[in-house]
Amino acid sequence: MESETTLPGMTSRNNSAALSKETTLTDRNQVNNQLPKRDIGTPSSAWRSRADAWEFLGYAFKQLAKGGTGTPSLAGLQDQAVQALLLLQAMELYWAAPGLASVAPLLGCVDSGDYDAGLEMIRGMSHLMPSVSPAPVSPGPASPGRVSPEPGQPGAGRTIPGVQDEGSRGPQPASERPRFEVLFVDDITEQEAETLKAEMLAQRRPSDAFAYELIVVPSYEDALVALVLNPAIQACILRPGFTIGSSQPLGRDLRKYLAGLVSPELAGMPPLGRFLSLAEQISELRPELDVYLVAGVAMESLAGSLTKRFRRIFRRQDNLDLHLSLLSGVAERYRTPFFTALQEYSRRPASVFHALPISRGGSVGNSPWIRDMADFYGMNLLLAETSATSGGLDSLLDPHGSIKEAQDLAARAFGSQKTFFVTNGTSTANKIVHQSILAPGNVVLVDRNCHKSHHYAFVLAGAQVSYLDAYPLDKFAFYGAVPLATIKARLLAYRRSGRLDEVKMITLTNCTFDGIVYDVERVMEECLAIKPDLVFLWDEAWFAFARSHPVFRRRTAMAAARKLEASFSDPGYAARHAEQAASLHDAVTGAPADDELWLETRLIPDPAKARLRVYATQSTHKTLTSLRQGSMIHVFDQDFSEHNQESFREAYMTHTSTSPNYQILASLDIGRRQVELEGFGLVQKQADLATIVAQAVARHPLLRKYFRVLTSRDLIAVPYRETGSAMPLRDGLAALADAWQHDEFVVDPSRLTLDISRTGVDGDTFRHRHLADKHGIQVNKTSRNTVLFMTNIGTSRSAVAYLIEVLVKLAESFEEERPARKTPDAGLVAGLTGATPPLPDFSRFAMRFRRDPLSPDGDLRAAYFESYKDGSTTYLSADDVKARIAEGEEVVSAGFVTPYPPGFPILVPGQVITGKALEFMAALDTREVHGFDSERGYRVFTR
Q1: Contact 746, 712 (CB under 8 A)
Q2: How far apart are CA 643 and CA 615, in angstroms?
Q3: What mean pLDDT is predicted for residues 167-179?
Q4: How many other C-beta atoms are found inside a 10 Å radius of the C-beta of residue 398?
Q5: How much is the CA Rg of the chain, to the nearest whole Å?
Q6: What tens digit of pLDDT does each residue of 714-765 get?
Q7: Cβ(388)–Cβ(324) under 8 Å?
Q8: What is the pLDDT of residue 15?
Q9: How does pLDDT run across 89-130, given as a tens digit for each residue?
Q10: Average pLDDT along the chain
Q11: Tens of pLDDT along 594-629?
Q12: Which of 475, 514, 747, 894 shows the greatest Cβ crowding within 10 Å of its Cβ?
């Protein structure tokens, strides 16, 4: 905004109604537009309740103004309006607009009965209020390409990032500029706060690319609350005068969450220690934000020691520089080097005498037969189609310009040392990483239930594959994840057999298709205690969004690697390792103690020997904004330059097309921008919306008759859960943080596995006939008796409401189909709720593909290519295979058998087929099974 907002009819109210924890309010009842009661306190997630409260006030004042004062039918509505305002009074301190100053005048209007004045105030603030629906797309800065010129381009070094070039397209109207909020932390009077806002407002210029408003909070705790609640905050300014505790009526959950962040030692710290502590907490909660320090005296003595924690340090009088720095910091995150370069290229005239007839629309625009392609996709897509790598563009295979910059920005956003873009999906990303690390004969430990791309990568690399079994969820016909004890036992077995040096890497899926998430830090820490040079590949195809949330982030590969790096540099950590090592080794011989002791101990690696070599592959297109097949490889490898740089480059060359899709690359660049500027708010909503669905199913009498959302207690066995919450996010942010801090496995709250067994309909039929065909609801993953729903950053409240509505309609239809009994068909239900064939563990490789009878690993490559030999394979029906097994014959699979979804193989080349595998395959309801011929049966080796 160009000036401070003045509300029509605003009056002073010094003695507004005091907040009381007994005052109550809940979400708006969609039937009667009332706000039922609940205890008031600042909630730990406010985006929905805040938007609903403001929307309800608009409705309430309109109705009250129509009815006048004293109308009996509207007496309750007045009370509801007061409650809404009291809730907002507990929250608006943490937003710049409408802000806390807007609440007292509205309370005054209710007390005086002047509802017309209140309605006018609300209408005057309507452009400032939070939207229940996504905000309209902002056109962005007037000249994105000029926000920060490329080195060597005209104007480079002469423009200020975040300030538009005066000669570009002219000043952009303030209403069209992207807006953000700045958190200012200092204990100052209301008058001082208004003066500060006015001083910063005076620095604005028509050429500014962005607009911002200040939020002033007095304390350490209030600063943390603001960061948790308000995703619009893009920068923080600290002054040493802030206090510690908040005087706001914080809710119990928020208080409990803050207790884990605010150290009791703060009270005894000097101001320097306090603002250093706060800066570190800001970095933990929202690492994308810029943090500035405004110091009063002796700032020169602080500058050299604070550069890692603060973007810049200012004197109190440096308002212009502070203003320009705020704009510059946001402009750096707003930059999209490759997307901008592609836009500029598409605007320039060009003649194509090379590949791509479709480039510039050449083969489309004048065609009477395919012109509808341009009508459907638009000319921008065709103008941006090119094989050029010059003119501001770049080569994906040898990036030195805009693509390299875009990848560097992605590395910053996702916390990696290096990031590489991949344009043909995470399947290819996985193959690149494996081929860069593994050589023929290297042993790789891998979850047997990982995506099929890993298995094919092992064939290409020639690795010895040692399959790990995840814990089964037989009742629901899918797997969980691999327990840490299983991983440690396998590593210790290799050590015991003298083959630990052959083990090169471990590959695990985090999170799984069904939402099971590992404690990544602990897994790596304990594995490195046994094998200090072990390489980790975390397949985070479904977990790219987690970087944007402070609770989810700690379980990502890159965050865990950085945490361990910091731990390894701590002298105290080395001392703890030395103490533990003494108890795990014989004092005389130095030999390791029995494996049982190692399995029972939470292991601490030797920080002098352990090397952090961590890779993560992410399907950006699955959970963030990107065109399909847009993926990234994130690298945190302390030995990358020495051991893997060249082999990685060759693997990247092997699997990357020489004609990468520029639209996918541009979308990856844009997706990274979104992560840094609004990722936190979007992911917060994503998780909350899933919780809304779960609560609706649990509370609606007809829904809970036929459906049940599986909880952590269903999906994670007791040994892997220290905390007891069934759905931690439903119980609050504190419960969520506690579970994600302590439990071996947790469930991604944005994934809802719906048990449909009581409907009498199997998962595949439910997915296609009832959801897709009848109601246009798309899901991907089912099992015999479950359907997986996932919210994402694009999910809206309307979509969630529609899903709930559809589930109610389906439940009603199931009810109507059984009018006599009013219960689901007993036979069908029994088939889906009763005992099912147990999920098969990996059996074993046939002896000829193993090194010795005791070896758990096998030569997948040899088995794969043996099937190429004439006469080496044949097809057998399931009955024939079963009969041969019964006769004691070893039947060996000649190929992969992979139900899709979820995309992991039940059988691999060289694996001995067992009766359990046959039983499971017979019970599958998946339509698409790769590698299995429904007419001819299983392809097996003839000998």
Answers
A1: yes
A2: 14
A3: 64
A4: 11
A5: 30
A6: 999 999 999 989 999 999 999 999 999 999 999 999 999 999 999 999 898 9
A7: no
A8: 32
A9: 999 999 999 999 999 999 999 999 999 999 999 999 988 888
A10: 88
A11: 999 999 999 999 999 999 999 999 999 999 999 999
A12: 747
Q: Are 405 and 337 in contact (CB under 8 A)?
A: yes
What average pLDDT does range 170-179 have in this prediction? 71
Average pLDDT over residues 247-252: 94
Q: What pLDDT is attached to residue 301?
A: 61
Q: Where are the alpha helices (DSSP H) in 585-644?
A: 595-600, 620-623
For residue 416, pLDDT beyond 60: yes
Strands (E), 523-598: 535-539
The CA distances from residue 281 to 226, 285, 288, 412, in Å, are 12, 6, 12, 18
Cα–chain-centroid distance for residue 629?
Answer: 17
**Which residue, 685, 678, 794, is CA-closest to 286?**
678
Pairwise CA distance, residues 407 & 395, whole Å:
12
Question: Scanning the structure block, which residue is given the tokens 């040096």?
Answer: 501
The dihedrals phi and psi of 938, each to the nearest 5 degrees, come to: -90, 140
The pLDDT of residue 29 is above 70: no
Amino acid at 930: H
Phi then psi for 214, rounded to 5 degrees?
Answer: -95, 140
- What single letter denotes the amino acid at residue 221? E
Count the Cβ atoms, other than its own, within 10 Å of residue 836: 18
Q: Which residues pair with 941 in a beta bridge?
A: 873
pLDDT over threshold 80, residue 143: no
User: Tokens at residue 803, please?
Assistant: 């899903």
Tokens representing 417? Answer: 């040392």
What is the tens place of the pLDDT at every residue in 644-676?
A: 999 999 999 999 999 999 999 999 999 999 999
Cα angle value 699/701/706 (rounded, 5°): 105
Helix/strand/coil for 76: helix
CB of 441 within 8 A of CB of 651?
no
Backbone angles phi, psi at 905, to 5 degrees: -80, 140
> Residue with structure tokens 């006599």?
820
Q: CA-to-CA distance for 577 and 529, rounded, in angstroms?
A: 9
d(CA 610, CA 282): 29
Asked whether 447 and 468 are in contact (CB, 8 A), the reply is yes
User: Which residue bears the tokens 């070094």?
Assistant: 157
**Listing from the earlier edge strand, what are the strands of the sheet with 464-468?**
418-422, 631-637, 613-618, 535-539, 503-509, 443-447, 464-468, 858-859
**Apex 244 CA angle, 242 and 245, nearest 5:** 125
Tokens of 671: 């997706």
The pTM is what?
A: 0.90
Between 25-34, 329-338, 784-793, the lowest mean confidence (pLDDT) is in: 25-34
Other Cβ atoms within 10 Å of 590 Cβ, number = 8
Q: Is the pLDDT of residue 8 over 50?
A: no
Confidence of residue 920 (pLDDT cuts 50, 70, 90): confident
- What is the separation, in whole angstroms, between the first and last Cα of the chain? 78
Sequence-distant (6+) residues with CB within 8 A of 178 are 138, 140, 141, 209, 210, 211, 334
Give the closest residue to 438 by CA, choosing from 890, 913, 861: 861
Q: What strands lie across the sheet with 179-185, from one edge to the other?
A: 211-217, 179-185, 233-238, 290-295, 312-315
Structure-token pair, residue 561: 């690697």
Find the length of the chain.
Answer: 943
What pLDDT is attached to residue 40?
80
pLDDT band at 535 (very low <50, low <70, confident <90, very high): very high
Report the candidate in 441, 434, 536 with the shortest Cα–Cα distance to residue 482.
536
- Which residue's structure tokens are 């010094």? 14
Rounded to 5, what percent of the chain is helix, strand, coil? Answer: 45, 15, 40
SS3 of residue 766 by DSSP:
helix
Determine the pLDDT at residue 353. Answer: 86
Instruction: With CA atoms as reference, report the closest residue to 416 among 623, 562, 318.
Output: 562
CA 585 to mean position of chain CA atoms? 41
The span from the CA of 463 to the CA of 442, in Å, is 5
